[in-house]
Write a structure and sequence with these properties.
Hydrophobic Seed Protein; 11 strands; two-stranded parallel sheet; alpha+beta; 4 domains; seven-stranded mixed β-sheet; 447 residues; 23 helices; Beta Polymerase, domain 2; Hypothetical protein af1432
C-alpha cells in the first residue's frame, strides 16, 4: 500500500546518506504508527542495517552522540538512528528488528523509496480494530522490558481500545515484575504521558484489569467498588475517573490530581445512620503521597497535588462574602496555586457527580464565581495582601517598634496583621499597620 509521509528534511537527508553508502534505512516505530492513525508525526526515528560504529563513521563530520543503556542508539543531529537488532528467527532486515519491538502498532517501517509500509505483524489491522497486541511472543516482550505492561495500558487509552486477550493474560501473569524490575521514574513518565490521552481513565481502568494498579497506585486500587456515600451516585473510583477525564490534557498535574482527589475517602470513611460519610477526607493524604513519593514525583509536583487536594472542598458560592473570597485567595497563594486551577477542579468535581439530585455548575453559576474571584484579584485587589510578604510592613519594622529580637514572635505578629488585612484590605498601609502592632502584642500576651 502506497502512503505518503511528510518526512522531516533532517531525517530524509540521514536516510539518503546511509543509502548512498550502501546501507538500508527506514522510518520505523512511532512515526509510522502516528501516520497510520492520521496523527501529527513529531519524531522521525530511523532504523538501519548499519552497525553502531558504521553509523558513527558515516556521520563522523556531524554531531553524533550515543544514548541508551540496554540498547544503544545514535543521535545524529538529534535524530534517533538505531542499528538493527536481530532475533533468533533469521528474518531479513527490517523484519529482524521489527519483530523485537513492543507492540504490533509499533512494529512497522516506512520505505522512503517505495512510499509503502512494511507491516509484517499486522499493525495496521490492530490499529483499525483498536487492539494493543504484543509483537510475536507476549511473554518474551514483557521479560525484555516489564515497563511494556504499563505502556500497553497507556496505548489502550491512547487508541480508545483494548488489550488483546493473549497479551492481557501475559500481563496478568507477570504483573509482579513491575514492582522491582522497573525504575519508578519510568513508570512516572508513563503516567504523565497518559494524562495527554482524551480519556486517561481508560489507562487506570486497564491498569486495574491487568492487576497493575495495585502495584502502581494502591491508594486508588482500594477505592474500586467503594461506595461514594449518599451525596454521590457513583463509587469513589468512578468519581475520580470522571473528574480526571473532565480536566484538560494541557494540565497533566492538575488532571492527575483530579484522578486522586478523593482517594482519601478510604481512610476517612465513617458509617453514620447506615451510610458512609467521609469527614475531612481532603486531609487524609498519607496514602496518596506515599504512592507519589514511591513513583519519584518531584517535591514541586507533590506540593502542587497536595495543594489541589487540600482545597478542593473549600466552598465558593454566590453568597460568599468578599472577606471569605480573600481568605480563599490567601490560602491558594500560600499553597502556590492559581484561582483558575482551583475553579477548574471545582467544575470538574461537580460535573463528575452522578447523583440525580446533583447537577454540574451552569454557565451562569461559573461566571458568578469567577466574578467574585476577579473582584479581589488583579487591578481590583487594591491594597489587599494575601501573604505576609505583601504586607505594607516588614519584620524588621515590627522588631524596631517592639524592640524585640528576631524569632517566632515576629512571625506571629505578622500573621495576625495579615488576618486583619484579609478582613479589611484598607488597613494595609504602613501607618495603620504600625499602629496595630502594639495592640496585637498586647492581645497575644493576654491569651
Amino acid at each position: 500500500m502506497v502512503i505518503e509521509m511528510n518526512i522531516s528534511p533532517r531525517a530524509d537527508r540521514i536516510i539518503k546518506k546511509l543509502q548512498s553508502r550502501g546501507y538500508k534505512a527506514y522510518i520505523a516505530g512511532g512515526a509510522v504508527r502516528d501516520m497510520v492513525m492520521a496523527e501529527p508525526v513529531l519524531d522521525f526515528d530511523i532504523v538501519t542495517n548499519a552497525r553502531l560504529d558504521e553509523i558513527q563513521e558515516v556521520f563522523n563530520d556531524e554531531k553524533v552522540t550515543t544514548a541508551g543503556s540496554t540498547f544503544k542508539i545514535c543521535l545524529v543531529n538529534t535524530v534517533e538512528v538505531a542499528a538493527c537488532r536481530s532475533g533468533k528467527t533469521g528474518a531479513p532486515f527490517p523484519q529482524s528488528d521489527l519483530e523485537l519491538r513492543d507492540f504490533t502498532m509499533n512494529s512497522m517501517a516506512w520505505d522512503t523509496a517505495d512510499h509503502c509500509i512494511i507491516d509484517p505483524f499486522s499493525g495496521q489491522r490492530d490499529i483499525a480494530e483498536k487492539i494493543v497486541r504484543f509483537t510475536k511472543d507476549p511473554q518474551m516482550r514483557i521479560q525484555e522490558d516489564p515497563l511494556r505492561m504499563v505502556r500497553a495500558c497507556r496505548f489502550a487509552a491512547k487508541i480508545n481500545g483494548r488489550i488483546a486477550s493473549d497479551s492481557l493474560v501475559a500481563i496478568q501473569n507477570n504483573r509482579h515484575l513491575v514492582a522491582g524490575k522497573v525504575p519508578f521514574e519510568r513508570i512516572r513518565m508513563e503516567i504523565l504521558k497518559a494524562m495527554a490521552c482524551e480519556r486517561p481513565s481508560l489507562f487506570f481502568r486497564a491498569l486495574h484489569s491487568t492487576g497493575l494498579l495495585g502495584y502502581i497506585f494502591p491508594c486508588l486500587e482500594r477505592c474500586v467498588g467503594l461506595d461514594g456515600g449518599p451525596h454521590h451516585g457513583e463509587t469513589v473510583f468512578e468519581h475520580c475517573m470522571l473528574t480526571g477525564d473532565a480536566l484538560s490534557s494541557r494540565r497533566p498535574l492538575l488532571r492527575l490530581a483530579g484522578f486522586l482527589h478523593d482517594v482519601g475517602k478510604y481512610d476517612a470513611a465513617v458509617l453514620k445512620n447506615g451510610s458512609l460519610t467521609f469527614p475531612g477526607h481532603e486531609k487524609a493524604r498519607g496514602a496518596i503521597f506515599a504512592d507519589l513519593e514511591t513513583l519519584k514525583f518531584s517535591t514541586g509536583e507533590l506540593a502542587y497535588i497536595h495543594g489541589i487536594i487540600t482545597v478542593h472542598m473549600r466552598p465558593l458560592t454566590e453568597t460568599s462574602t468578599p472577606r471569605a473570597v480573600r481568605r480563599l485567595l490567601a490560602t491558594l497563594e500560600q499553597l502556590g496555586l492559581s484561582w483558575e486551577d482551583f475553579m477548574r477542579m471545582r467544575i470538574a468535581d461537580k460535573k463528575a457527580n452522578r447523583n440525580p439530585v446533583k447537577r454540574p455548575y451552569t454557565l451562569s453559576e461559573i461566571k458568578t464565581r469567577l466574578r467574585l474571584l476577579k473582584n479581589q484579584t488583579g487591578e481590583n485587589r487594591g491594597s489587599s495582601a494575601f501573604t505576609i510578604k505583601e504586607l505594607a510592613i516588614t519584620g524588621q519594622e515590627v522588631m524596631a517598634i517592639l524592640d524585640i529580637p528576631p524569632g517566632p514572635r515576629v512571625g506571629e505578629i505578622l500573621a495576625a496583621l495579615l488576618e486583619k488585612v484579609l478582613d479589611d484590605p484598607a488597613l494595609n498601609t504602613p501607618e495603620q499597620l504600625k499602629e496595630l502592632v502594639p495592640a496585637i502584642r498586647q492581645e497575644k500576651s493576654q491569651r
